Structures are given as structure tokens and as C-alpha cells.
Amino acid sequence: MKIQGKMFIWLSFFILAMAILYGLWSKEPVGTTALFMAFGLAIMVGYYLAFTARRVDAMAQDDKQADVADEAGELGFFSPHSWQPLSLAAGGAFAFLGVAIGWWLLYFSLPLILIGIWGWVFEYYRGENQNQ
Fold first, then answer.
1. Is the dihedral of CA 106, 109, 113, 115 positive or negative?
2. Residue 101 has what DSSP assignment?
3. N or C: less crowded end of the chain, CB within 10 Å?
């Protein structure tokens, strides 16, 4: 994680330099603002990765002599059969569509979003997957 943190911090400094250069050269406020916002996002990600890297063990990507196989193994648990993202996606699509069509569509999207969040949080607290 140290490598990724350094990469994002250096990227943020590059974006900052380009934002200043672009702002002085073009005098265009929208692009300059977008570049400064990109700088903010890059520095936040870089700081988070650098901050987290101090609290976790060194990974194989931090060792210059490491092999690819050193990071092999289980990456975590991922739900293979969850229907909850579909409900969240449909609710989110209706919510964003409600901004374009009319705010009344939010009344239909909010229950879908709440059902999706509730189901996703409590997915492994009941049913056949209770003991996983």
C-alpha cells in the first residue's frame, strides 16, 4: 500500500501543477476548477493509502524483491448469489431518473433502495447462508 499511496500523492502534485498552469494559460474557470477538484480527490486517496499502510503489515507489493506468487491466496469473501445489488441498482436508477422526469418517482425508488440495503446488510443473518 505504500507504493500506491506514494503514486497517488505524486499524481496529485502533478495534477496541481497542471491545474495552476492550465488556469494561468487558459483563463477558463470550469476546467481549472475540475483540475483542482481532481487534485483534491487524488490527495485524499493518496493520504488514505499512506495512512492505512502504516497500520497494516507490509505486503508483497512493498517489497522490491517479491514474486507475483507472494500475494497469492484468498482475497476475501464475496457473495456469489446476492440479489440485493439488483434491487439497489433499480432503486438508484429510478432515483436518478426521478431527477430528470419528476420528483414523484422518488416515492417508488426509495422502497427499492431500502429493501436492497436491508437485504444486503442482513443477507447472512437468516436462511440457508446463516452460518457463513
1. positive
2. H
3. C
User: Dihedral (C-alpha) 37, 41, 46, 51: value to the nearest 10 degrees?
Assistant: 120
More confident residue, 1 or 15: 15
3-state secondary structure 23-73: HHHHCCHHHHHHHHHHHHHHHHHHHHHHHHHCCCCCCHHHCCCCCHHHHCC
CB 104 within 8 A of CB 98: yes
Query: How confident is the model at residue 73, as a pLDDT?
Result: 77
Q: Is 20 exposed, middle or buried (0-12, 13-18, 19+ CB in 10 A)?
A: middle
- pTM here is 0.56
Query: Contact at 8 Å (CB) between 106 and 98?
Result: yes
Q: C-alpha cell of 39?
A: 487534485
Pick 128 or 89 by higher pLDDT.
Answer: 89
Q: Which three cell numbers stand for residue 25?
A: 494559460
**Residue 117 and residue 123: Cα distance in Å, rounded?**
10
81, three cell numbers:
448469489
Q: Kind and range of the H or E element at 75?
A: none
